[in-house]
Amino acid sequence: MSFERVQEKLNILADAAKYDVSCSSSGSNRTNTNKGLGNASNSGICHTYTEDGRCVSLLKILLTNHCIFDCAYCVTRKSNDIKRAAFQVQEVVDLTINFYRRNYIEGLFLSSGIFKSADYTMERLVAVAKKLRLEENFNGYIHLKSIPGASDELMREAGLYADRLSVNIEIPTKQGLKLLAPDKNRADFIKPMEKVKNEIIQYKNEKKLIKSTPKYAPAGQSTQMIVGASGENDMQIMYTSNYFYKNFNLKRVYYSGYVPISYDTRLPQIGTPVPMLRENRLYQTDWLLRFYGFNIEEILNEQHQHLDLDIDPKLGWALRNLHEFPVDVNTADKRMLARIPGLGMKSVYKILHARRYRQLNWEHLKAIGVSLNRAKYFLICASNTFETRDLTPEKIKGLILQNSKSKYTDMFSNQLNLFG
Amino acid sequence: METTLIYDGSYDGFLTAVFTAFEMKLKAVTMVTSERFQQPLFGTYETVITDQEKANRIWAGLKKKMTANELRRFYYAFLSERPTMEDTLYQAIVYVFASKTNVASDFTNTHILEVSKLTKHVGREKHRMEAFVRFKLTKDGVYFANIEPDFNVLPLIKNHFKKRYADQKWLIYDLKRQYGIYYDLEQVDVISLEFDTDFDPSKTSTALFAEVELEFQQLWNDYFKSTNIASRKNMKLHIKHVPKRYWKYLSEKQ
Ligand code: SF4
């Protein structure tokens, strides 16, 4: 491996891959067999954080940034005048192994621009994963980006060596996609996802019969949507997300606030702030769907198409549904406890344990770590001093905001200024 | 009158001290390692000799009273090395033994709650060390790392690294506590090292480390830089995730 050559390629091809936010290395269960190298731990590890605060757990690079397509939102697009480079298969293997041995990373995230054709590109991605597994006896995490339009056979092979596969939807609506990525069509994303889903189902069935069936994409598949590039609202984004969770058993959907990178008039101009607060609200909503038992219709619907920026979605839901409150923490079931603003699942778990011993009061809740500033309007406990006077939702919201210092407060006031 | 029991700093030593406190039916008792011990003005003190048998009996007693997870919490809290840790654990143990039912998760009890808080700190440090260890390849073909964790987490991260790096020799050294764990492709041993006086653990001297080592550090450094998105820069968040006290041994932060 020539150090200088690889160094130059790495700079170009890591830079081009950084807009993909799916960095997670969790959810796999590949164990180190016959004294090989590495394992994929179920919880995933962030080995460092970028200066913008995102977790670095994988070596995330493109195999090449040559591309025959011209998607407006992408730095790698054909019409963009940038330096191009391409890794050799062996170079990616060497980098991965050597970074892994030094405990810099949990594994590899390999994506690529499309050179020549979808299959030609996909074949090379698969070759990297195959080499890592079969020649290097590597058991760390491998995430391959499926190239839209790649053949079923290649998708099948990809799943045999990768822990996770993903196809980025990027643009949440059909119309948006047509406008910004005229070379792409939605069916090309769906097909590989369908294939992977079916393979995973088949794997699970076969595994019941034959123990030694090779693993197929054990960490499942994920996708990413860019937020704020094509004018869609939060409801459209989250319904799309929900659709993919339900129909393709996706493990994760990532939301990526659009970072302006071009002077294309179809897109927000360079210098437009990245919608980070909105991105954060979408993740919170996603979280409520996956771990808190909420249905998407409860949070976003025709009457309520946008998430509030000034309060989190759970608090927003609670304020629109005051008739469900107050909840008695000493008797309520887990589902309702999880719906109290200010209560995370860890607090819920602690409450369920602690209340077996005695009736909980404000002091207990505070000691457990409940954020009473928000929670006190929505619950009752074994104390006489209730906060549940008949307050209107507006009043409660005002009181909470007055007493909370959100890390986004500054940012939020900036955005308000924008609308003057 | 208060009795101070002095133990050797090991977990078994601590459990032996607990056993002793019960055996002597001490009312007011406090426990301290021989390193931290200072002769009290009032009260008596006594040195406890670590006794595997006695330690096992306390451990077995606790095992009967709580779940494996709760048991693990007590051990984690012990590794926090906090000066009040022994008293907290002792009080929690007294509470557990005094109750008929399992109260090890009764978070309304201040001692139990405190144990769970200490556990959280130690757990986080364990996780951080699994993330922030940076191996450097020595000329002898050993992957070597220095750490200075806030708590004594080497015993907790041993298995993680053993499972992960089964095919390379590695050594993780805790500079603060002056001992390390070394894997020789067969097993993990506890070792201590003598460093030359001019040894600088935050540097990669070419006398000790392989030539390619500096190249890979450079590549990792480059990678770290090019993966950052300047328009999303948020140093406050960055420092929250990677506190400055860890930077010394993180090659990407040099
Ligand atoms: S196909 Fe992929 S790499 Fe190529 S321009 Fe479109 S988004 Fe970018």
UniProtKB/TrEMBL annotation, chain A:
SMART domains: Elp3 (SM00729). One of its GO terms (molecular function) is iron-sulfur cluster binding. Residues 57-284 form the Elp3/MiaA/NifB-like radical SAM core domain. Keywords: Iron, Iron-sulfur, Metal-binding, S-adenosyl-L-methionine. Its cofactor is [4Fe-4S] cluster. This is Putative DNA modification/repair radical SAM protein. The lineage of its organism: Bacteria, Pseudomonadati, Bacteroidota, Flavobacteriia, Flavobacteriales.
UniProtKB/TrEMBL annotation, chain B:
Residues 84-252 form the DUF4130 domain. InterPro entries: DNA_repair_put, DUF4130. Pfam families: DUF4130. This is DNA metabolism protein.
